[in-house]
Write a structure and sequence with these properties.
It is a single chain. It is globular, with a radius of gyration of 15 Å. The chain is an alpha+beta fold. 28% of the residues lie in helices and 33% in strands. The chain has helices at residues 4-7, 15-24, 37-48; strands spanning 8-11, 26-31, 52-60, 64-65, 73-74, 78-85. It contains 3 helices and 6 strands. A hairpin with a 7-residue loop joins strand 4 and strand 5.
């Protein structure tokens, strides 16, 4: 298994992520692209000490940047995980 701190990279804060946290008790995280749902669940439970009910993941491809130049670049590919916490559990992201 990978190091726990390499699996969870960042917390994604957006309008949709905030609504998911308030309504469904779900936290949106940016995770390692090679991590699977079981590894993500174990990492959240061990790092934050919270009970996880379910994990949903989505892969995002990098976008092209500077399209009008012949040397156009590309942003990084990344993976998002939406983690549902058990009732009564909460994660303070401030």
């Amino acid at each position: 298994m990978k190091d726990l701190y390499q699996i969870i990279r960042n917390v994604r804060l957006s309008e949709k992520a905030t609504l998911l946290q308030e309504m469904n008790n779900e936290v949106t995280l940016e995770v390692d692209r090679a991590a699977n749902k079981l590894e993500i669940k174990k990492a959240v439970e061990q790092l934050f000490g919270k009970k996880v009910i379910g994990v949903r993941t989505a892969n995002y491809a990098g976008k092209l940047r500077r399209k009008r130049r012949p040397d156009a670049g590309r942003t990084s590919q990344w993976k998002k995980a939406v983690v549902r916490l058990a009732d009564g559990e909460s994660l303070d992201l401030n």
